[in-house]
Predict the 3D structure of the following.
Amino acid sequence: MAKYLAQIIVMGAQVVGRAFARALKQEYAASQAAANARSRAGQQSAAASSITGMSLQEAQQILNISTLTPEEIQKNYEHLFKVNDKAVGGSFYLQSKVVRAKERLDEELSIQTQDKKQSEKNPET
């Protein structure tokens, strides 16, 4: 009787151990895929920063944007562009900074849109 009980306990432990190992492998694969996706997005964002010569934070500060919404970006851009127009006594330098900031934020929005589409294509990642 004790022999059968010991066999049942050993077999149960083996089953639980295999299930745990399988779950661990799946979790590791999922975390690797998520890390790769974050890395890819970070690389794209860094490339956009180097192309425009402006970081995302700097662009948000220039346009006074807290959340990346196209409507808010466009509204603040139009206002700041008009205020800094040379014809009304503004600064061409500041106006160009406003344009670059909008370009940088538009690029970031397109990166986020691409990432969202990619994650919708591959929901397991």
Notes: The two ends are 48 Å apart (CA to CA).
